[in-house]
Amino acid sequence: MYTMEKGAIFPLFYHPPIEFFTRLIQHKQDILFEKHEHFPKQTYRNRASIHSANGKLDLIVPVIKGSNVHTPVKDVRISYEFNWQREHRMSLQTAYRSSAYFEFYEDDLMPFYEKKWNFLYDYNEEILQFLLKALKITAPYKYTSEYHISYPGYDDYRESIHPKRTSATEINSYFQVFEEKNGFLPNLSILDLLFNQGPQSVKNLS
Fold first, then answer.
1. Does 134 fall in a domain?
2. In whole angstroms, how far apart are CA 45 and each of 40, 49, 59, 86, 161?
3. Per-residue model confidence (pLDDT) at position 5
């Protein structure tokens, strides 16, 4: 049973799913971000799911080969062998140009697709700062100083928030641009909620 006193440990994700922010708000008095785990593949750490005209679309940030399970997540480097930033930018514009609030956030979002970051962790951390500000969530956080398998007294979301696992959190429905065509897609990137609901987004997270 959830208690108000309990803290939580999270990974840093690329434009995290809605579930991430729902949990973050629940635990916002005591948040730890994992900095020393070995980098796991095929997770939200380097992917975000958006709602395109053809359904769910995964945007993946490529990492330099050799960033395998033995690389600490803080040391994983982003690959720029192909112009994924342009691809992600165009995918977001195509999917959300007609949404109610895309233009409201566009100027703040675009630098993430123009400037180059060396490390995935630094990139995700700056994205998180932008998203917390956009959502008007005040949630001071700290980083782990070393890796521990478990954190007594903390709810651990390092593995439970995962693309291959159904969200344990009930996701409140809201209007989506392509909902009439594809149906409502739950637990997409927080960007989907922001672009469709704007300043009211945080109300959907409780």
1. yes
2. 8, 12, 11, 19, 10
3. 63
Instruction: Name the pairing type of β-strands 47-52 and 55-60.
Output: antiparallel
> For the residues 113-134, what does the mean pLDDT come to?
97
Give me the domain span that covers residue 36.
7-200
Q: Please state, in angstroms and rounded to a whole number, the distance separating the CA atoms of residues 18 and 170.
A: 10
Average pLDDT of the residues of the chain: 93
- Domain count along the chain: 1
- The residue type found at 176 is Q
Instruction: Identify the pLDDT of residue 1.
Output: 42
For the record, the structure tokens of 82 come out as 């192909």
- Residue 132 included in any domain: yes
Q: Are 122 and 46 in contact (CB under 8 A)?
A: no
53-90 confidence digits (pLDDT tens): 999 999 999 999 775 557 899 999 999 999 999 999 99
Structural domain includes residue 2 = no
**What pTM was estimated for this model as a whole?**
0.94
Q: Which residues pair with 141 in a beta bridge?
A: 31
Q: Is the pLDDT of residue 3 over 50?
A: no
Residue 1 lies in a domain: no
Residue 53 neighbours by CB under 8 Å, 6+ apart: 94, 95, 178, 181
Rounded Cα distance, 75 and 32, in Å: 18
Say whether pLDDT at 138 is over 50: yes
Please report the DSSP string for 82-115 in residue order.
Answer: S-HHHHHHHHHHHHHTTSSSHHHHHHHHGGGGTS
